[in-house]
Design a protein that fits this description.
By secondary structure, this protein is mostly beta strands. It is built from no helices and eight strands. It has a four-stranded antiparallel sheet, with no helix packed on it. The chain has a four-stranded antiparallel sheet with strand order 3-8-7-4, with no helix packed on it. β1 and β2 form a beta hairpin. The mean pLDDT is 96. This is Large ribosomal subunit protein bL21.
């Protein structure tokens, strides 16, 4: 059984006991989170598609920890002008584990 759910503006394919990294959530570590925007559910071949979301379906998860992602270097240059800018970015992430996919 898996579901496609929207979490913090991004869509993820999730199943039970799966760990994934999402954009930073405001919840504390160890806290339970419920995502209500479920777009598709596959229950052993029986596929339910929402328009746009499935009413009554939800995904329950638990926040494991907050962390920062790998550094991404941003380098800008204009040739023959002497313009060079080097910048770095580390995205704030939250690691969650999916505990249950609920369909009513």
């Amino acid at each position: 059984m898996y579901a496609i759910v929207e979490i913090a503006g991004q869509q993820f394919k999730v199943s039970k006991d799966q760990k994934l990294f999402v954009h930073r959530l405001p919840n504390e570590e160890g806290e339970k989170v419920t995502f209500d925007r479920v777009l598709l559910v596959d229950n052993n071949g029986a596929i339910t598609v929402g328009a746009p979301a499935i009413s009554g379906a939800s995904v329950e998860a638990k926040v494991l920890k907050h962390l920062k992602g790998d550094k991404v270097l941003v380098f800008k240059k204009k040739r023959r002008k002497g313009y060079k800018v080097k910048n770095g970015h580390r995205q704030y992430l939250t690691q969650v584990v999916i505990e249950n996919v609920v369909v009513k």
